[in-house]
Design brief:
Elements lengths: L6 E4 L6 E4 L5 E6 L2 H7 L4 E6 L13 E4 L8 E4 L5 E10 L2 E9 L3 E3 L1 H6 L5 H4 E7 L21 E3 L12 H10 L8 E5 L6 E5 L7 E6 L2 H7 L4 E4 L1 E2 L3 E6 L6 E5 L6 H6 L3 E7 L3 E6 L5 E6 L10 E4 L18 E3 L9 H6 L7 H18 L1
Parallel strand pairs: 3-10, 10-11, 14-23
Antiparallel strand pairs: 1-2, 1-9, 3-4, 4-8, 5-6, 6-7, 7-8, 12-13, 13-17, 14-15, 16-22, 17-18, 19-20, 20-21, 21-22
The structure holds zinc ion (ZN) (4 copies).
One zinc ion binds next to loops.
Family: Belongs to the Gfa family.
Protein name: CENP-V/GFA domain-containing protein
Keywords: Lyase, Metal-binding, Zinc
């Protein structure tokens, strides 16, 4: 058990594959903060804590692009080809002192090939587990915390992310936040942003009774695209989804039609995005080219029932202004197909379902049922 690099991290396009020297086992924390949500496009981030980054901070691998929100902030490292947010350094306060932390996005992590050949029976879930949840306060409405993982197993739950303040006692309390939260009535549009606010998405509806279906996928592609094992999407007809850009005079905003096809002309129009085709001519993923946030998935030819094009913005971007809550029960129809989440078998096959997705699959389904019974 002395493999020097037991883990590796990989992005969606696999251009950025990094070996990680570390001791095992490792723990990951689940962060529900606005920065993490808008960095990954997911409702929470799953960050595996590392002693240090597996590369030099001053000269990271050339396939990475980096983002710092301010000169004193930590640094995000994402793949310049596909946009997957893979590593980060960050700062946090504990016992009155500023500490630097390092992490890798758990969804990118797998056992390295050399470790697997030496330890053929070990699964990732045997050596990596969730340790704590933090900053649920940012979600306003509890976010996904009623079904994110299993708090009875996880050691600490920090409502604020401030270690000096008391932890949140139970998962039921988070559920209670959701029950109590009231969304504004009559909303006709819902906006989403990436972390750097360079990409803004808007979905609209004429009728406030109309809700957009939203589901949770745990397939390998979604995981590698976001760096998170649990990925929510909202399905919107393309004619009700827009990009909001600055007007040419820089004063106001302009609504841009969501492209039917990401060709050279549309790519140029949204030049601040990384557009990656995982299946050429068929499947496109968009990410913010400045901060690395995953923004959308689009499969050409996928339509809603009436034949209109469908686009799939990442649900974690919506309501990112820390005032309105993030589950948008007035606007989004959270659905659970038979298995609870989509592609649960992928996580089982990869030996990683025990980290979180097996629990999510059960608890998400229960939560959706409860939502329906309340509606
Ligand atoms: Zn990549
Ligand atoms: Zn966070
Ligand atoms: Zn951005
Ligand atoms: Zn998926």
């Amino acid at each position: 058990m002395s493999n020097p690099t037991p883990l590796q991290a990989t992005c969606l396009c696999r251009t950025s594959t990094i070996q990680i020297p570390t001791a095992l086992p490792l723990t990951a924390h689940v962060c529900h903060c606005t920065t993490c949500r808008t960095s990954h496009g997911t409702l929470f981030a799953m960050h595996t804590d590392l002693q240090s980054l597996p590369f030099s901070e001053s000269s990271p691998p050339s396939t990475f692009r980096t983002y710092q929100s301010s000169p004193n902030s930590g640094t995000a490292y994402f793949c310049s080809n596909c946009g997957t947010y893979m590593f980060a350094s960050y700062f946090y306060m504990r016992e009155g002192a500023r500490h630097e932390g390092f992490c890798v996005s758990t969804g990118c992590v797998s056992l390295s090939d050399s470790y697997k050949s030496e330890n053929p029976t070990v699964k990732l879930e045997d050596v990596l587990s969730i340790d704590f949840h933090c900053i649920i306060k940012d979600t306003i409405d509890g976010g996904a915390s009623p079904w994110a993982g299993d708090w009875s197993k996880e050691t600490q739950v920090q409502f604020h992310g401030n270690w000096e303040e008391p932890p949140m006692p139970s998962q039921e309390d988070a559920e209670e936040l959701g029950r109590k939260h009231v969304y504004p009535t009559g909303r006709k549009e819902l906006d989403g942003w990436c972390r750097c606010k360079g990409v803004k998405v808007r979905i609209t509806r004429e009728d406030e009774a109309r809700k957009y279906k939203t589901g949770v996928c745990v397939c390998d592609s979604c995981r590698l695209a976001t760096g998170t094992d649990v990925v929510p999407y909202t399905w919107v007809p393309r004619d009700h989804a827009f990009f909001v850009t600055k007007s040419s005079d820089g004063e106001g905003e302009e609504l841009q039609e969501w492209p039917a096809v990401w060709d050279d002309a549309t790519k140029a129009k949204f030049g601040n995005m990384i557009i990656y085709e995982s299946t050429p001519g068929k499947v496109v993923w968009g990410a913010c080219g400045t901060c690395g946030a995953r923004v959308f998935y689009q499969k050409y030819g996928k339509t809603v029932k009436d034949g209109r094009d469908l686009v799939e913005p990442l649900t974690g971007l919506f309501g990112a202004d820390v005032t309105q809550g993030i589950m948008h029960l007035d606007f989004l129809d959270w659905v659970a197909p038979d298995g609870g989440v989509y592609s649960a078998e992928d996580a089982e096959k990869e030996g990683r379902a025990g980290i979180m997705t097996r629990n999510v699959n059960v608890m998400y389904q229960k939560w959706v049922k409860e939502m329906k019974s309340r509606a």
